[in-house]
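Lab notebook, bench 4. Still working through the backlog of constructs that have no structural model yet. Next entry is a single chain of 203 residues. Request: give me the structure tokens for it.
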Amino acid sequence: MAIIVERVSSPCGIRAKSPAHRYFTDPGLLDLVDETVGAGYWGDPCGDPFAPAWSRAAWAFDIRCGENGLLLPWPATPAFINPPFDDCVSWLERAAGHGREVLALVPAQPGSAYWRRIVWACASAVVFVGRPKFGHVLEADDPGRGRRTGDIISTQHPTDCAVVAFGIDRSKMLRVWSGSSVVVAPVQGEVATLHTHVEVDMS
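Model written out:
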């Protein structure tokens, strides 16, 4: 089965600059990222200085300053991404072609065409039981609770979420993530990477 990616989509960051699209990964989930790929060893190509991941990452690109992780080369280390959910396809394509371990926190859409094309062909995934909480930038003042626009609050995400794993042993994913999620698909044989043109053995 041949998977062909003709291009990387347009740069991210336009919608991601809006507070409505700034959902920060919970520190408890970052602990699982550390356990999976190594604390202090992974980078964040889709970073935000206000996010807890910023201080944990070995390197990071700031999408709010125009550092486009879809176009910039990633250092040859593992990576973790929590991309803008309105452009997660482009980020999954980029992650699949990185050639190193990558964890991606994205919407859980296992029946979608892009999951069939990228996730099930090249990776494994864990889907959360219940919707995880994220740090969210408040869009408007909330005087009743003493909150102001721009405050970071913990809130449950409005959609189901999953962590997609590229280049990571399935047994490790099961061991590390099984307490908060369920593995919904195995990887058959070696994990493939998604390049401009790559043959993926589906046998």
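Notes after review: Confidence is low (pLDDT under 50) at residues 1-20, 186-203. The first helix runs from residue 27 to 37. Flag for follow-up if needed.
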